[in-house]
Amino acid sequence: MGVTSTVPWERVRSAAARLTTPLHPDDYLSLVNPLWTARELRGRVERVIPETEDAATLVIRPGWGWRYQHHPGQYVGIGVQVDGRFHWRSYSVSSPPERDGRTIAITVRAMPEGLLSSHLVGGLEPGTIVRLALPEGDFVLPDPPPARMLFLVGGSGVTPVMAMLRTLDRRGSMPDVVLHYSSPDPERMIFRDELTAMTDRHPGLRLHELHTDVDGMLDLADLDGICPDWRERETWACGPGPMLDAAEEHWERAGIEDQLHLERFTLQLGGDGGQGGTITFRNSGKTIEVDGATTVMQAGEQAGVGVPYGCRMGICHTCTLTLVSGTVKDLRNGDEFGQPNEPVQTCVTAPVGDCTLDI
Amino acid sequence: MAIADVKEYTHLTPEEVEQIGRELDQIRADIEESRGAADAAYINRLIMVQRGLAAAGRVTIGYGSWSRRGRVPALVAGSAMLGLAKILENMEIGHNVMHGQWDWMNDPEIHSSNWEWDTAQPAEQWKHSHNYVHHQFTNVLGYDNDIGYGILRMAREQKWSPANLGQPVYNALLATLFQWGVALHDLDIERIRRREKDPKELKRQLRQLWRKVRRQAAKDYLIYPALGGQGWRHTIAANAAANLTRNLWSYVIIFCGHFPDGAVHFTEEEIQDETREEWYLRQILGAANFQGGPLLHILSGNLGFQIEHHLYPDLPSNRYAEISGRVRALCDKYDIPYTTGPLHRQYGQALRTIIKLSLPNHLTSRDDPAPPERADTSDRPAQHRRRRSDAERPPRRIELGGWSLQPDRSGDSDHQEV
Amino acid sequence: MDPDPRRFDELSRDAELGVPVPFACVSAREVDPRRVPQCALSRVCGICGAGLGRPLAFVGSPEEAARNAFHFPPAHLACAEALLAAYDGVEAAVLGQQKPLGSWAVVTTAGFEFVRPSRGQVDARPTFQPNSLLEERRVR
Fold first, then answer.
1. For A148-263, which CATH class?
2. Does residue B408 register a pLDDT over 80?
3. Which one of A127, A176, B387, C126 is at 20 to 30 Å from B149 when CA atoms are compared?
4. How many domains does chain C have?
């Protein structure tokens, strides 16, 4: 399906549609090959490449209607049918925009109880047909790229940046790039080997690894030591919400917020935090004291409780648990929930005083 | 005789009605919770089969048009396949998808919002006249247009006029041209006749209708024949035969849904302040099932489970068979009439009614079902409910046999008999 | 009830509050109880009256969103957003709500169940229960 083609496909299609009305010709063609339809974008999973224990790259062959002109850093929607229903999520495209054997590659990190990510990493069979949404997103690399760049990434936020780096690598136009990459530990760091190889090939690329399990989270005050001229660089940051919030604040204080480009997959948790308190997880017997900006879900994970979750943005309600007693506050809008045995979404609420959850 | 209060007709106490509602809600909840991969596989497989049949039918008819050898078998087989494809698409797939039965899958290609079905009526108009008017006001005289479709007299309460004498003819015409009858249905001939229809809305609907009709008619009677070469006449005949097959079959199935004797009618009073439980009861009493094997049910869009469909119009149709066991048991428990029978008998009763009601009431006998009699309440005096005066009561029920005519009304031949 | 689809900008205006009156409403404050089942069953937008698209949007109070039971019929997402923008700043109990709302919830879904009121229910209105929730948002 070339962009330049001598056959006027649209005319052919609309003529054929008179034979298939009220259906489209694609509806019949897709009986022969599921990819032969542009009515709804689809793709076939060709390979699933494990990257780390909980992450994998899906190589997908898109069907008709797909445009390969995505910009590095954009994300694409994938819809997968699980138990009869289609579930959609957005993932960064990690393949560079050139057509590479007519496939696109998407890297997914499995969230332990995240319905779709676990399915994609562990359960998706090659040959499965998935639905796709065209790439979108403003987190894009300008062409030509700036002479000096800084990337701040955390966890699976490395993926859009990976697309950018691979593009620069392939074009041989890697300028002065500093990449600061936070990950819980070296084993869970996706693309680690590939990045190390890239730094060998390109003297301009410098990689800083931060293992947060051991060394704690990134403190932006250390930025001067990691990259002294950060104030003169265009910076792209992608990672968990709190990290991006901190970056936004840091750049604002330096008066250079225009140089910071953020990719948020997670919802903005603004508003005043709760006052914090001790959370008791009743059934497992664990307790933990947290501040008012830590969500109940984060608290549970820190305490070692298996808290269920899906989107982590307050949308899917997978994380809803029963608040036995106490009060929590929704960090998106300040609403408080304090009825005994009230169901609360743990990914967007933080404790206001001590509270107990039924898990 | 039309019912004004389901509770009274079925001799149910308010507590029993509430309990029935709860049990029906529970059935619903059970099915909703268990919708999953098997159901999704069912509809996807069905769509694949139907489209395959349509394509095969067209190709076979094309072959029959072009080649002289094996012409007749090819045309017959092709027409049969195409007719079958149209039947499946209209009844089991299109009608059900437009009810929203498969919206839960979040599949953009199988969704009530954009499904356009393979017949002359635009989906939007069908969703208004069928999903809303018919399913909300099921069998309520004066509201449900499906009681006769504006051209047939199907209830004794409907006023007789000499035009009704032609009813058997209209019925035959409707059967053969069923697709076009359905297409015009949402225009609401009744209201146009009474000059109640908004002319602007009518114009908009006619335009929408014309666009769909044009495409459908061109497909079957212009474009495919054009591709049929010298034998274009054969293509037209085969396509017309396929349409006729679909028309006759869907007409029969649809007429078995609410016209057998067991399906009763209701007055406007019933729907005032109707609760969910009463709505359930009206759906059970106003619909009629027919019996058959799994293949018959798929071919008839699972409308052999008309009662279950009316109770749960937006649950996946492949589950109706399973639901019917539980609904039947519930009806038996409370002595609620559950109308079912072999297909030929159900249709026979509908046909008999069409013929009978072409004549004024005093010339024919009633075929109302025996009113429900509850084993444990038949001796219970009616006085435990506040007695209503005759003016408040619904029209008196007439018993069969020697009671079928009020002795002092024999002169009123063209008044509505009560 | 006839179908009567109209473009959002062609909706009639409420005499008291000056805001557009949705298809399913008699006035900006009151919902027409006959239009509610019509929208549910015919699958048309409660705001403009035209056939629904995918996804559907439900508009209501945060409590309705938490209980997953809305009273206002389904709508196009664009119509829902336009309506809430038009009603921004209106300090009155509108669209069938019992009291003025500080913030609205907009929920998108692929499908819903239409639940008619039961006998003895305190709130005698039918409800819409989304069955394949896609997204929830707060407006204002």
1. alpha beta
2. no
3. C126
4. 1
Which residues in chain A are classed under CATH 3.40.50.80? 148-263
Superfamily of domain A9-136: Translation factors (2.40.30.10)
Judged by CB atoms closer than 8 Å, whether chains meet at B109 and A31 is answered as no
In this complex, the residue of B105, B111, B279 whose CB is nearest that of residue C116 is B279
CB distance B36–A22 less than 8 Å? no
10 Å CB burial of residue B318 (0-12, 13-18, 19+) is buried
**Cβ distance of A314 and C136 shorter than 8 Å:** yes
Which chains form contacts with chain A, at 3 or more CB pairs under 8 Å?
B, C
**A113 close to A307: Cβ distance less than 8 angstroms:** yes
* pTM for this predicted structure: 0.73
CB burial string C86-118: b at 16+ within 10 A, e below: bbeebeeebbbbeeebeebbbbbbbbbbbbbbb
ipTM, 2 decimals? 0.76
Are A18 and B219 within 8 A, CB to CB? yes
B25 vs chain A: nearest CA distance in angstroms? 23
Question: For residue range A178-199, what is the model confidence (pLDDT) as tens digits?
Answer: 999 988 778 878 788 889 999 9
CB atoms A84 and B36 under 8 Å:
yes
Task: Give the percent of chain B with pLDDT over 90.
Answer: 64
Q: Going by CATH, does the domain composed of A277-357 fall within 3.10.20.30? A: yes
Nearest CB to C119 within list B18, B124, B135: B18
- Establish how many alpha carbons lie within 13 A of residue B153's alpha carbon, considering only the half-sphere containing its beta carbon: 21
Q: Where, residue-wise, is CATH 3.10.20.30 in chain A?
A: 277-357
**B68-87 tens-digit pLDDT:** 888 999 999 999 999 999 99
CB contact under 8 A, C43 and B111: no
DSSP calls for B28-63: HHHHHHH--HHHHHHHHHHHHHHHHHHHHHHHHHHH
Residues of A in contact with B114 (CB under 8 A): none
Interface test with B, best of A83, A88, A131 (most B CBs within 10 A): A83
Residues of A in contact with B116 (CB under 8 A): 22-23
Q: Looking at the domain assignment, is residue C21 inside a domain?
A: yes
Q: What is the pLDDT of residue A156?
A: 72
